[in-house]
Amino acid sequence: QRARYVNPVKFFLTIFAVYIVALSVSGTLDKIAEESIHIGPGSDMKSAAVQTVLAIQAVFKTHFNLVFFIALPLIAFLLRWQYWRAHRNYAETLAFICYVTGITSLYGMVFVPFFFFFDTYFGAPRGIILVALFLVGARTFFDMSWPRAVGGFFLSALLYVLSTVSATIVLGWAHMAGL
Q1: For residues 4 and 145, what is the distance between their CA atoms, to the nearest angstrom?
Q2: CB 149 within 8 A of CB 48
Q3: Residue 73, φ and ψ in degrees, nearest 5
Q4: What are φ and ψ of residue 176, in 5° steps?
Q5: Is 46 helix (H, G, I), strand (E, B) or coil?
Q6: What is the pTM of this model?
Q7: Which candidate in 1, 29, 76, 89 could, as Cys together with 94 as Cys, close a disulfide (CB 3.0–4.6 Å)?
Q8: Helix, strand or coil for residue 6?
Q9: What is the percentage of the chain residues whose pLDDT exceeds 70?
């Protein structure tokens, strides 16, 4: 009998959509946008930098999901080249990233009621889950030893942050342009 599996991209899209709805309903999405980006009290509100920051904050509040939909393919592309010796193609790497992010969002939903009842947002539990899943997954998927997986994680984390920040800035500029 043929083995059956859940398509990782569909899995990610479904779970992440439910996760975003849970964050929106609980009011946590607004807290993420407010706590992620701070504007100093003495800032010139008409400067281009502050306007960009305000646009990015608006993108976080209204299009949080779009940030990840744009960043994940970019992350997969960069990881494909980071782990080129594993002989994995782009589609396989994208499936891996979608699966890890989907599972992280699934486990992250456990914390949403906590965020709602205590009127806060704390990203560390989701970050710890993401790190653990990525390390175990990368070790298996890219066929690495634990030291290589841990060592490669730091570059992967940097690529993840750069991809997400780049996608957020581009969407912020698009928001400023009225798109």
Answers
A1: 28
A2: no
A3: -60, -35
A4: -65, -35
A5: coil
A6: 0.83
A7: 76
A8: coil
A9: 99
Distance CA 64, CA 167 (A): 11
CB 134 within 8 A of CB 100: yes
**Is the per-residue pLDDT at 11 higher than 90?**
yes
In this prediction, residue 12 has a pLDDT band, given cuts at 50, 70 and 90, of very high
Nearest-angstrom CA–CA distance, 95 and 99: 6
Closest CA to 175 of 64, 44, 75, 23: 64
pLDDT tens, residue by residue, 49-91: 788 888 888 888 888 888 888 899 999 999 898 988 888 999 9
pLDDT of residue 67: 87
Q: Name the DSSP class of 178.
A: T
Tell me the CA end-to-end span of the chain in Å, nearest whole number.
50
SS3 call for 19 = helix
Q: What is the DSSP letter of 42?
A: T
pLDDT at 121: 82
For residue 27, count other CB atoms closer than 10 A to its CB: 12
